[in-house]
Amino acid sequence: MADAAGPVTAAVRDGVIAIARAAADAILAVYAEDFDVIRKADASPVTAADLAAHRVIVDGLRALTPDIPIVSEESAVVVPAEERRAWTRMWLVDPLDGTREFVKRNGEFTVNIALIDNGVAVFGVIQAPVTGALWHGAPGHGAFVREGDRDTALHAPRHDPARPVALRVAASRSHRDPRTTALLERIGDVTPVPLGSSLKFCRLAEGGMDVYPRFGPTSEWDTAAGQAILEGAGGAVLDPQGRPFRYNQRDTILNGDFIALGDPSLPWRDWLDPRD
């Protein structure tokens, strides 16, 4: 399926983009009406929009790449970890990332679709339904924002240590904890940027934000597409030991702590509490 241009063919890339846009349309159809909010077993919210987007994406990916299994946040059947870890490739999907933002109707939610190859997020697409913005990328092959059928390349900017500036740091609207607050204090001169969902990765890739620290639970489908795009733009998603994030390697689908950087040369180790 791969070609010299990247981990997927142009036909698969454009097919996934079309699927993401169709999922966004399904989400907006619910967003325009009154909708109920159901609480899952972990107390996280789910709506008819999550389920509608899930159906669009799963049906679309099965038709586009029938040989690649799919793990979606809204899958009714949980694949046993032993079976899942035996897969070489898989699609990792969050049909509606930022359901809390969807419920608040602030527009800061996305569709996330990522291709995982031997644990690495090798291709990702993020669609913002309300604005229509769409990003896609692959580590080593670039990151792009697509408008219509036209791609514009993204390059996360580099910082000059001789000319320090206030770093723009993601401050989640729905997830803020004491460890993040302490990290912001250790960085010192910061400009907090509140933003929901995987849009934070896109903002990093575009150069509109510098650092996204996250302590506490996220799931692999929350970060995989964003990591592929950010790394395509020259950024990084690292664990506290400096290792790139990997996927489908453990029994759990939950991530550990991470820090996402537009410029990986920033002194991020100095900002972490050594007790973490």
TrEMBL record:
Mg(2+) 1 binds at residues 73, 94, 96. It is found in: Cell inner membrane. Its EC number is 3.1.3.7. Substrate binds at residues 73, 96-99, 222. It catalyses: adenosine 3',5'-bisphosphate + H2O = AMP + phosphate. Pfam families: Inositol_P. It is an enzyme of class 3 (hydrolase). HAMAP family: CysQ. Belongs to the inositol monophosphatase superfamily. CysQ family. Converts adenosine-3',5'-bisphosphate (PAP) to AMP. NCBIfam families: bisphos_cysQ. This is 3'(2'),5'-bisphosphate nucleotidase CysQ. It comes from Luteimonas fraxinea. The lineage of its organism: Bacteria, Pseudomonadati, Pseudomonadota, Gammaproteobacteria, Lysobacterales.
